[in-house]
Amino acid sequence: MSACEPLRFPTDLDGWLAAATEYADDAIARVASLDAQLTAGVAEATAALELWNDADLALRSAANQAYVLSEAHPDAAVREAAEASVERLDALSSSRLLDERLFAALAAHEGAELDGGLDAEQRRLLDHTLRDFRRGGVDLPAEDRERVRQLADRDTQLSLAFSRNIRDGRREVRVAPEDLAGLPQDFLDAHPAGDDGLVLLTTDYTDLMPVREYASVRATRTALVSAYNDLAWPENDAILAELLAVRAERATLLGYGDWADYETETRMIGSGSAVRAFLDRLDDASRDAAEAEYPLLLERLRRDEPDAEEVTIADFFYLLSQVRGERHDVDAQRVRSYFSFDRVLPGVLATAERLLDIRFDAVETATWHPDVRTYDVRRGDERIGRIHLDLHPREGKFSHAACFGLAPGLRGRVLPEAALLCNFARGLMTHDEVVTFFHEFGHLVHDILGGDQRFARFSGVATEWDFVEAPSQLLEDWAWDAEVLATFTAGPEGEPIPADLVERMRVADGFGRALEVRRQLGHANVSYHLHVDRPADLQEATEHWYSVTSPVRPLRGTHSYAGFGHLTGYGACYYTYQWSLVIARDLRSAFGDDVMNEAVAARYRRDILEPGGSRDAADLVAAFLGRPYAFDAYRDWLGGH
Ligand SMILES: [Zn+2]
Question: Which site from 375, 435, 491, 518 is most exposed, i.e. has the minimal number of CB atoms within 10 Å?
Fold first, then answer.
């Protein structure tokens, strides 16, 4: 058997139940044996790093697989067992970084000259790993070290509980059939009234998104968005409060000013104060444009509701869509008629194939659910990875859209594998969904193409976290290109979406962009300030930050922080979306008018995607652009260009 075989999954429920636990058992046993060799003393730095890498690989692979199962397996018992495995593996990762003997075994090789020299990649692995140890608390006095360990474990437990409550916390509202005015016919057909004469709407994206965008009855939008903004509340209230306390205490014990300082040390941005400066810069860059856009939304709202005093977040997407449509002759439903899922899926695959010189070959293989489509990723005769697309909603499944690593690629040893968990409609898709598909696919190809690495630590999307969205945000632009869209769209007569309609969509999309950036800035402010200011009243603080950031009002009295899933993973660092976007816009500028330019695409693949995390992102970007990245392209884009 070749060293680079793809993962094999169980074929029945008993197999899955066993696997959900065994992934962790096997990895934990393997890590124990490798760590024993390492701490017994290894004379050569190179050999020590290889042992470390093998353990790292075992942990990352097992954690990835368990994590995907915990979010995607259709059986609740498997999800629970997998979640327990994630907890055990995370606990082991944290406790290894507190293990003085492991630290000493690696730190012994810190003086490179004495080792007969490490090459640049080995040096990087050693430096990054020792930094991880110091950030894990290994340097601390025994008592503090033990406390940091408890806090890290508690963070994992609380974060999992927070996500679980969101995932399982679906809310429902019931409305009269006439209150669904504005929604497309296929949505109405799929939502008949029940015995009580009312129509059931849920906070799942497949209901929420169309209602937010199309429902012309304000009360319907407000009811469903309110329910969505109270997702996982009150359950997540105490969980979040404790999570913020746990993080603050951990940062302090480790010698950082606050949790933002701790998190940003390993990011491009570098410090918590730089986050504040960046948020101020965004505030400046978007304020005037947002204030010019807002009155147009309010005016449009008053045509439906003459007494309306303000635009709320429940009105925002509907009004944006209305104003864009009316001012720029873009009818969202007409646009949607061109995007049937059955055409979009092969279209996204074919676009990535052309752009990145790869091929996707469908593979028949058992996975966790029959909905999952599996493809080998090939270049020429060589299989370079495998992807799993799990694209439609089902009960108990992860309810957003994201890319999940499954196997971290390792040159000659492990075939990179990753999965998309999304919740797309099975029939016609909104253009937003198509953009999301391209976005997530940007992560997916980054994970696969960046998976030809020497060390698991740098495989795939393992780059600085505030750079990780740049490749995905960049690929969104392909969903706005008329020539790209013409290759896979079809209207009622089979004709592709007309180029002039796409051009109007692009112009229309420019409207509201500053308000959208301010909405994102609101999320970034909430994420940063909840972690750094540690407010006693989460509801009040959240409402405050949304209110002062955007003229579009939050729904007062709701508790959107309880369902703000990114607070666990992104912590204080939701700014990363906009930081990445600044860079993505700059990367985009290199393609000029031709997003399929072969020469630029080849450089992009080589300079940005393939290195994974093996070099600093700022260096990758400078290599591709031929200069350091700048703010100019982002500012142009913000101005609607
Ligand atoms: Zn993303």
Answer: 491
Hey, which residues does 360 pair with through a beta bridge?
377
Look up residue 105 and give its amino acid: A
348: buried, middle or exposed (CB in 10 Å: 19+, 13-18, 0-12)?
Answer: buried
Where is 384: in which H helix or E strand?
strand 382-390
Residues 488, 347: contact at Cβ < 8 Å?
A: yes
The tens digit of pLDDT for each residue in 232-281 reads: 999 999 999 999 999 999 999 999 999 999 999 999 999 999 999 999 99
Report CA(408)–ligand 1 centroid distance (Å). Answer: 18
What is the Å distance from ligand 1's center to 571 Cα? 15
**Distance between CA atoms of 465 and 577, rounded to whole angstroms?**
10
Using DSSP's 3-state secondary structure scheme, residue 222 falls into: helix
Ligand 1 center–CA 473 separation, angstroms? 7
The CA–CA distances, whole Å, from 152 to 88, 91, 96, 97, 297 equal 12, 8, 12, 11, 45
Tell me what pLDDT residue 1 has.
Answer: 40
For the chain, residues with pLDDT lower than 70 are: 1-3, 112-116, 641
3-class DSSP assignment, residue 258: coil
Q: Which residues are CB-contacts of 558 (< 8 A; sequence separation ≥ 6)?
A: 226, 229, 230, 233
* Distance from the alpha carbon of residue 468 to the mean position of ligand 1, in angstroms: 8
Q: Are strands 373-379 and 359-363 parallel, antiparallel or unpaired?
A: antiparallel
Omega into 234 within 30° of 0, i.e. cis?
A: yes
3-state secondary structure of 375: strand
Amino acid at 259: W
d(Cα 446, Cα 440) in Å, to the nearest integer? 10
DSSP string across 540-564: HHHHHHHHHH-SSBP-TT--GGGG-
Report how far ligand 1's centroid is from the alpha carbon of 437 (Å): 10
Q: How far apart are CA 414 and CA 3, in angstroms?
A: 7
- Record the pTM: 0.86
